[in-house]
Amino acid sequence: MLQRIQTIYILLALLLSTLLAFRVPFWLSEEGAGLYLKDFFQSGELVYLVIPILFILSALLSLVALFLFRQRLKQIICNRLNIAINFLLLGIVVYGLLNLPGENQFSEKGIGVFIPIAVIVFLVLANKAILRDEKLVKSVDRLR
Fold this sequence. Notes:
This protein is mainly alpha-helical. It has one domain (5-143). Helix content is 67%, strand content 4%. It has helices at 5-23, 46-67, 72-98, 115-143, and strands spanning 27-28, 34-35, 108-109. Strands 2-1-3 form a three-stranded antiparallel β-sheet, with no helix packed on it. Helix 1 packs antiparallel against helix 2, helix 1 (5-23) runs antiparallel to helix 4 and helix 3 packs antiparallel against helix 4. The chain is elongated and about 65 Å long. The model has no long low-confidence stretch (mean pLDDT 84).
């Protein structure tokens, strides 16, 4: 399981969706205080409440895909669904950034905004490696 490169890619996507997403700030206010993912749960707006829920859902899908290593086609489907969720998450985060109050003053975007992009890249790389394995297995079955 761990000797395959797609497992490493999926594990990196899982770590990005869980550990790093809750540890780095998404954006900084003009006072320098960081807004973290756990702070979105206290927000009253639905847009900001959906962001941590989608990160948790992405992490759960990565975990499921990690244990589907014997069923490659189901693993690909799970990764594609996770990619779609991360695109949705990226759109919601960009929408939230564009509607930040006080954008005319100084504010900085944190590294947390780029986490969905990195997760998408790792999942695409994992899907390419899974398809390569599937092609190899089919070619060996033809030789029998």
